[in-house]
């Protein structure tokens, strides 16, 4: 069981990315494609260390972000995230070299990875979520923290 601080993209972003990935998924059944219903932008992977909740984000301006082209970590194909997420990731506990991303597929270490160009629609982050992974239902929400805009 692990803990992850994340944010969920809005439905229109998920739909658009899903449409772009559909032909690639059909061409690459060797990859384990993530369920679009579970897509999220990882801000901080805490591992087995329960952070005991989320810190206060109320002084941070909710950033406007968008998904971009794909990239890879060992055995992971992900979509890049453009926008000022570093303050949120740092506040959540991410190390300085952490790269916020949205995982779309996993594969063997030697799998050739496709390059997936993508210019997703922008959205303003409205909440941060801490989840517990590896539960019988997949992800279990521990806590949700709304982000307020300057006009709230």
UniProtKB/TrEMBL annotation:
<keyword id="KW-0436">Ligase</keyword>
<protein>
    <submittedName>
        <fullName>2'-5' RNA ligase</fullName>
        <ecNumber>6.5.1.-</ecNumber>
    </submittedName>
</protein>
<dbReference type="Pfam" id="PF02834">
    <property type="entry name" value="LigT_PEase"/>
</dbReference>
<feature type="domain" description="Phosphoesterase HXTX">
    <location>
        <begin position="9"/>
        <end position="75"/>
    </location>
</feature>
<dbReference type="GO" id="GO:0016874">
    <property type="term" value="F:ligase activity"/>
</dbReference>
<dbReference type="InterPro" id="IPR009097">
    <property type="entry name" value="Cyclic_Pdiesterase"/>
</dbReference>
<dbReference type="InterPro" id="IPR014051">
    <property type="entry name" value="Phosphoesterase_HXTX"/>
</dbReference>
């Amino acid at each position: 069981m692990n803990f992850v601080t994340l944010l969920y993209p809005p439905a229109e972003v998920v739909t658009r990315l899903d449409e772009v990935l559909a032909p690639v998924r059909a061409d690459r059944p060797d990859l384990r494609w993530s369920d679009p219903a579970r897509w999220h932008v990882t801000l901080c992977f805490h591992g087995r260390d329960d952070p005991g909740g989320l810190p206060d984000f109320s002084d941070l301006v909710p950033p406007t972000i968008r998904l971009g082209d794909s990239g890879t970590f060992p055995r992971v194909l992900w979509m890049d995230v453009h926008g000022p997420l570093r303050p949120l990731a740092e506040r959540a506990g991410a190390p300085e070299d952490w790269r916020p991303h949205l995982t779309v597929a996993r594969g063997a270490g030697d799998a050739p990875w496709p390059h997936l160009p993508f210019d997703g629609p922008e959205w303003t982050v409205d909440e941060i979520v801490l989840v517990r992974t590896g539960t019988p239902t997949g992800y279990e929400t521990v806590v949700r923290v709304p982000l307020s805009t300057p006009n709230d």
